[in-house]
């Protein structure tokens, strides 16, 4: 009896452990197989434990909770059908041969099931996707939908028109033709225009999945045209696609913060150096960062959180007007060291500052580098800025700045009042949406523009003064406008920043001069209001 008790006791302990180990082994083996399929597949598969809306497997037609979906073509499959779906269904092709070359055509690419609930059948004009099962078809290019009973043989071979945004899409057969022309060493790409359209303006989307509130990952699957993930490919490489498209026709939508926009504009400057100036694209912005001051200045808003449909964003890009943005060269030359150290050179789009706002940015960046996982929300980022701003109000680390620096505007020395910070502005907005040069708006002052070759220079009395300006309870100390700004830091280390990139700087000379212009797209708020009312 004792031996039987011992035996069953061991079984009750060991058996669950063995079952757990076996399940763990099977799960890890399954994950290895899934990763192997993802790596070899032409689909852009993403695994999910829970679909956010009712979804049905494109293979077995059963309801699925966990499985995989393709970010490119929208295919959804259960975990068990993944391998079979990868073999059965083709994804969207970036390059595809056509019998008519770049002026040819291609049929619809139909995917069955999981159509948007708001879509209508292109044949009978009735709502699609209303039944709780795998039903109806959607073209991955034009996004048209068709009922099962309305699908005819003629639709399967019908030419795809690429839908509402045909003027923004780069057809796969166009790139195939251009690729063949490059092999034949022909470069007259401008003669090859798809659809024979006069107003073709292809759009390339560059998304930074790490910006601000991490919405870039979601947007990769929302846009149904050519998208590059900047966490995987550098902007300079992605923008080489512009050289295969007609001159002065390409528009680039940058999904990210002001730092991402600056990164893309630097890559465009490299294109100018390579002699590719006629292929320079115009740049629009979808603000995903924390501050988004450049986006605000150009009419694209202070931040995007998914409240505007992707279709409206693309419509705004099509209707936006071209403008120029001044870009400035910031050269920081250290004092001493017998001039052996090379000067630091930055490119400025937004603003340069020394003082409390640069100190807040420096503390924020140091904290984010230690614990990057905490800074995944725009609200949390602004709360941390608020904390460091409140701390500086009490400590006042940058006081008596006027005794430590000298300021020259166009070669003329400026007598400084008692200040803690100096800010040199190129754009209208600063500090996450504050119109710093305007202040309260109760004093006459020359207008500030981002394309006039002039910089606006202001001073602040401290972090509390900055907060007062942001809520329009105070005016900045306007020091003047100039084409060239020179600032000499005579002693001690001070925090500085260029477009939100801070560092601690010792004695030096900072010289800001005009560098070049960037072609940007300006979105009028009136267009948004008209679209919302309609």
TrEMBL record:
Keywords: ATP-binding, Cytoplasm, Kinase, Lipid metabolism, Membrane, Metal-binding, Nucleotide-binding, Repeat, Transferase, Transmembrane, Transmembrane helix, Zinc, Zinc-finger. It is found in: Cytoplasm; Membrane. GO terms for molecular function: ATP binding; ATP-dependent diacylglycerol kinase activity; zinc ion binding. The chain crosses the membrane at residues 6-25. Pathway: Glycerolipid metabolism; Lipid metabolism; glycerolipid metabolism. The keyword Transmembrane helix applies. Its EC number is 2.7.1.107. It comes from the Eukaryota. Membrane-bound diacylglycerol kinase that converts diacylglycerol/DAG into phosphatidic acid/phosphatidate/PA and regulates the respective levels of these two bioactive lipids. Thereby, acts as a central switch between the signaling pathways activated by these second messengers with different cellular targets and opposite effects in numerous biological processes. Also plays an important role in the biosynthesis of complex lipids. PANTHER family: DIACYLGLYCEROL KINASE, DIACYLGLYCEROL KINASE EPSILON. Belongs to the eukaryotic diacylglycerol kinase family. This is Diacylglycerol kinase.
